[in-house]
Amino acid sequence: MRRTSKLTRVAVGVASIALAATACGGTSDSGSSSEKEDLGLAIAYDIGGKGDQSFNDAAYAGLEKAAKEFGYKTADIEPTEGETNADKEQRLASLARQGYNPVIGVGFAYGPAMEAVAKDYPDTTFGIVDSVVKGDNVASLVFAEEQASYLAGVAAAKATKTNTVGFVGGVDIPLIHKFEAGYKQGVEDTSGGKVKVISQYLTQTAEEGGFSSPDKGKAAAEGQIEKNADVVYQAAGLSGQGVIEAAAKAKVWAIGVDSDQYQQEALAAYKDYILTSALKDVGGAVYALAKSVDDDKPLTGVQTFDLKVNGVGLAESNPKMAEIAGLTDAVAKAKKGIIDGSIKVKTE
Question: pLDDT digit string (tens) for 145-188?
């Protein structure tokens, strides 16, 4: 249903709120519908949680925008260390029972849990970021990460002076392979194969801390810098903060991911060495799903956010980008080529 405004909800009283909650929420096995409030968007964070200055914080920005615009109650829930799929199922089901709508799992790890839970709450719209889950009431919010990474590779190839650049991936999984593939192709196409890319993954599984261990990211970047890399691109969540720290300490370039990390307050001490960031508009996707529910036209199925719809891109906040010969023009040309189809970006 389309939610009423704050002022209207105050005026109509408890009875109308109860009716609204019944329509917006999922089925419930605990308490009557009259006990529910008219609730809005809820997000359940991926590994690393809020404060990663990257993926999860981007999702939170979307939640904040929705809360401000629609004037409703929201929730954002942190993951727990060593949690199981059963824990994720319980979290998603609890949010749906309380009447939150939509309920979004931030990260591919929520896939099995969402598939299990969504069918039990057919009146709740669920969303999952970075994975595809089938269901009549599920929106799969996926991104063309390889396209943004290609642009990052173009920038790296133009910025390097040593003809050696690095890539640090958080976990060795297909999703992060997309980042690496696009980056490598962007570097190769721009340099004509003259620039070497050193790649390293921090862990084989997320449970080992690949997305949540800045110390691992720092050590990996230091190793690549020792091998002469003077630009290091990271797709590693919270671990990426360590990559950026190592780059700044060595006075070489870091390339951020997901959010515009040049603008992040927590990374302000290193911003002079954050050349750019490969952007992934997770916040925009989260907001779009919330708006669709508020408009009573909930998105479902696969929703792809690519360069054509500004779902991905390359940050231009650092003015030093413009000082590097040919960089801005090369990125613009590459972006045009990807959008018009003359550049086909690899995903693996």
Answer: 999 999 999 999 999 999 999 999 999 999 999 999 999 999 99
CB-based contacts of 338, cutoff 8 Å, min separation 6: 147, 150, 151, 307, 345
pLDDT in tens, 58-84: 999 999 999 999 999 999 999 888 889
Q: Which residue, chain included where needed, has tokens 């994720």?
A: 88
- Measure the CA–CA gap between 164 and 119, rounded to whole angstroms: 49
- For the question of whether the overall pTM of this predicted structure is more than 0.70, the answer is yes
213 class by beta-carbon count within 10 Å (0-12 exposed, 13-18 middle, 19+ buried): buried
R_g (Cα) of the chain, nearest Å:
21
8 Å CB contact between 168 and 236:
yes
How far CA 213 is from CA of 55, 56, 171, 173, in Å, comes to: 14, 15, 11, 17
Q: For residue 213, is pLDDT > 60?
A: yes
What 3 state SS string does 33-101 have?
A: HHHCCCEEEEEECCCCCCCCCCHHHHHHHHHHHHHHHHCCEEEEECCCCCCCHHHHHHHHHHHHHHCCC
Cβ 257 vs Cβ 281: under 8 Å: no
What is the average pLDDT across 5-18?
32
User: Distances from the Cα of 328 to the Cαs of 156, 230, 252, in angstroms?
Assistant: 12, 19, 19
- d(Cα 242, Cα 288) in Å, to the nearest integer? 31
